[in-house]
């Protein structure tokens, strides 16, 4: 009657149901898997009071201005406080407290992170400085190290310093794209692009006068702009084939050949791995009639593994040839613990996880159930949504090092603080460093408090990444490869024996992913990803905004990334903004051109009206999927012919699934003047 969406049917003919109250507010959902969710809306304020699952309820409280002040689950309370301007200044839960000091423009000047986990109390102090355009120019980290960002123009990065020592310099072309990267130890990486603006070559070399090639990668694309071939000087040739809607169906490389088949809803149904070079086109569901491996996008069986889920769609049990794994989840759908009982008798691990008020993981403890020994204990600190450091205590798991040698891997005694720096504003790791005078880390205490070893000279290791930001090698100051990886298509990784064994461990995988040895899962900021099956193991926290299939990682892992575990992002869309900056630079301010050259959307400043009053804010332009909806999950939906650039309110007028929750009153600064 009112044009409200009441039923959504996916490609497998599963049904997603919606119900509303008389004021058209959503009050009930039943997902494709039949799992239910109810929304309680306050009749006076219209605000959401609670969300109820079959086995859990989340409740919300607000202040008089409509700002959320408390979120409560059965096992956790999260609290928030604001300044007079409505900006967040305090956020806490039982294990963490985060305090923020901001300047008049809303830039964070100081952050204090306090953690109480595993009987330890730790405080981390962060300080930040900005230029007149609010570009970050300096960070003073909790270990006392200073990171300087050297910029030109409206904020283009041309170098970074660590305690006044150069760690990287950039050279850029006329479109501000990186063409050369100089590392401090006479290492050089050159980057070349083809006529369409696509990455064509990456070449890493070492040596001050005579350059020695370390890694060279050539990239080749088909007529649909899909990456089909990589020639890697260390690994050999890698090739990829896709089905008509951009899903990866075949990958060949030094680890062999893999083929994949999907059901119509983009669930991977089968995966085969062999050393044969024969290509097999497998797109359709090859299961016997009447038998389904997937029910409502819940994967039940694949490649000899079996999976069980709870009432909210979270994986609670996985049985495979390696053993039995179980997982426990809290009211916020965060993994609280995992257990592993290996096929080998007596092998059992129990792991506890802790999170801060924002859902970022801040602690992990791995215990050998048989001996009661703490094998690993790690504290994580964060810079925004990137892991900034990890303080490790205990005995590093042998599987985590994963150095495949004929003699086998040995467990490593590990007691260290490792720091990470990333590409400017990105999730791609740039540098790993360890302080040579790290505070002693005994079992009873974590290191890395405020200003621990600021005056010491750190050991610095440089990441060399692939076309989507996945680490390929790690190099030390002597220009030696100390870590190297080979991976199957969906991220299952084998670590090669290094040329120089510095005892370096790298757990970064796809962008935003961190390898957990105890479960062999990848922690993906707000979810967990299983590289063995190429999908997430819990529902997407942003629901249908992340696509119709909440467990899908991406149509293919060659061009797509999902750093938060929320919504996948294709490199082609990043290229669209880069190409727009090149073709129509006269339409945008220099500040926006800087954003677009990084693959980010341009911004404008607007005045809007919300239910809480009139406010001004900066908003990004959006891409409307004109003919093929993004919700379909098809790769073709993100090609340029299907994308229309618009502001959020124009997007809302074109897409019934886009809701801004506000009324546009005036554009104060256009994309040309922002």
UniProtKB/TrEMBL annotation:
NCBIfam families: Rhs_assc_core. GO terms for biological process: defense response to bacterium; killing of cells of another organism. It comes from Taylorella equigenitalis (strain MCE9). Residues 179-368 form the Teneurin-like YD-shell domain. Residues 460-494 form the RHS protein conserved region domain. InterPro entries: Colicin/pyocin_DNase_dom_sf (IPR037146), His-Me_finger_sf (IPR044925), RHS (IPR001826), Rhs_assc_core (IPR022385), T6SS_VgrG/RHS (IPR050708), TEN-like_YD-shell (IPR056823). It comes from the Bacteria. Keywords: Antibiotic, Antimicrobial, Bacteriocin, Endonuclease, Hydrolase, Nuclease, Repeat. Pfam families: RHS, TEN_YD-shell. This is Rhs-family protein. GO terms for molecular function: endonuclease activity; hydrolase activity. Belongs to the colicin/pyosin nuclease family.
């Amino acid at each position: 009657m009112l044009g409200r969406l009441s039923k959504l049917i996916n490609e497998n003919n599963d049904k997603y149901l919606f119900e509303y109250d008389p004021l058209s507010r959503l009050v009930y959902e039943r997902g494709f898997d039949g799992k239910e969710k109810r929304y309680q809306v306050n009749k006076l304020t219209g605000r959401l009071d609670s969300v109820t699952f079959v086995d859990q309820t989340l409740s919300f409280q607000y202040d008089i201005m409509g700002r959320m002040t408390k979120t409560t689950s059965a096992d956790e309370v999260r609290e928030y406080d604001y300044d007079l301007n409505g900006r967040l200044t305090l956020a806490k839960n039982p294990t963490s407290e985060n305090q923020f000091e901001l300047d008049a423009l809303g830039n964070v000047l100081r952050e204090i992170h306090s953690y109480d986990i595993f009987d330890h109390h730790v405080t981390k102090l962060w300080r930040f400085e900005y230029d007149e355009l609010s570009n970050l120019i300096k960070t003073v980290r909790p270990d006392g190290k200073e990171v300087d960002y050297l910029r030109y123009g409206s904020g283009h990065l041309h170098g970074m310093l660590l305690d006044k020592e150069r760690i990287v310099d950039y050279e850029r072309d006329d479109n501000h794209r990186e063409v050369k990267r100089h590392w401090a130890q006479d290492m050089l990486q050159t980057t070349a692009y083809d006529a369409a603006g696509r990455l064509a070559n990456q070449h890493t070399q070492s040596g001050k006068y005579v350059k020695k090639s370390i890694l060279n990668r050539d990239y080749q694309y088909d007529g649909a702009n899909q990456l089909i071939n990589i020639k890697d000087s260390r690994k050999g040739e890698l090739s990829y084939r896709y089905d008509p809607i951009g899903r990866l169906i075949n990958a060949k490389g030094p680890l062999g050949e893999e083929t994949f088949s999907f059901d119509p809803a983009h669930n991977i149904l089968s995966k085969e791995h062999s050393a044969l070079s024969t290509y097999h086109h497998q797109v359709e569901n090859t299961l016997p009639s009447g038998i389904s491996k997937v029910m409502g996008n819940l994967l039940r069986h694949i490649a000899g593994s079996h999976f069980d889920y709870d009432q909210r769609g979270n994986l609670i049990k996985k049985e495979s040839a390696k053993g039995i794994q179980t997982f426990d989840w809290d009211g916020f759908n965060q993994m609280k613990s995992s257990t592993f009982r290996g096929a080998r008798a007596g092998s059992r691990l129990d792991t506890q996880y802790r999170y801060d008020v924002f859902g970022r993981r801040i602690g992990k403890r791995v215990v050998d159930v048989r001996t009661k020994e703490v094998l690993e204990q790690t504290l994580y600190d964060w810079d925004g949504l990137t892991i900034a450091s990890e303080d490790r205590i205990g005995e590093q798991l042998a599987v985590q090092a994963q150095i495949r040698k004929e003699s086998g891997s040995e467990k490593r005694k590990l007691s260290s603080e490792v720091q990470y720096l990333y590409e400017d504003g990105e999730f791609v790791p740039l540098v790993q460093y360890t302080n040579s005078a790290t505070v002693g880390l005994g079992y009873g205490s974590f290191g890395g408090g405020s200003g621990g070893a600021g005056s010491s000279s750190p050991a610095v290791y440089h990441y060399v990444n692939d076309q989507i930001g996945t680490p390929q090698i790690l190099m030390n100051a002597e220009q030696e490869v100390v870590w190297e990886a080979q991976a199957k298509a969906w991220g299952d990784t084998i670590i090669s024996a290094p040329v120089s064994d510095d005892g370096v461990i790298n757990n970064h995988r796809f962008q935003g992913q961190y390898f957990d040895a105890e479960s062999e899962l990848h922690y993906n900021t707000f979810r967990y990803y299983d590289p063995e099956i190429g999908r997430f193991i819990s529902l997407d926290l942003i629901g249908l905004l992340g696509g119709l299939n909440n467990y899908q990682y991406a149509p293919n892992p060659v061009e797509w990334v999902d750093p938060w575990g929320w919504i996948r992002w294709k490199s082609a869309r990043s290229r669209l903004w880069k190409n727009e900056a090149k073709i129509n630079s006269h339409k945008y301010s220099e500040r926006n051109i800087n954003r677009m050259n990084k693959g980010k959307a341009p911004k404008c400043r607007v005045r809007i009206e919300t239910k809480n009053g009139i406010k001004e804010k900066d908003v990004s332009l959006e891409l409307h999927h004109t003919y093929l909806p993004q919700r379909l999950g098809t790769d073709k939906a993100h090609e340029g012919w299907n994308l229309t650039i618009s502001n959020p309110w124009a997007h809302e007028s074109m897409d019934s699934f886009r809701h801004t929750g506000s009324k546009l009153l005036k554009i104060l600064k256009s994309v040309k003047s922002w």
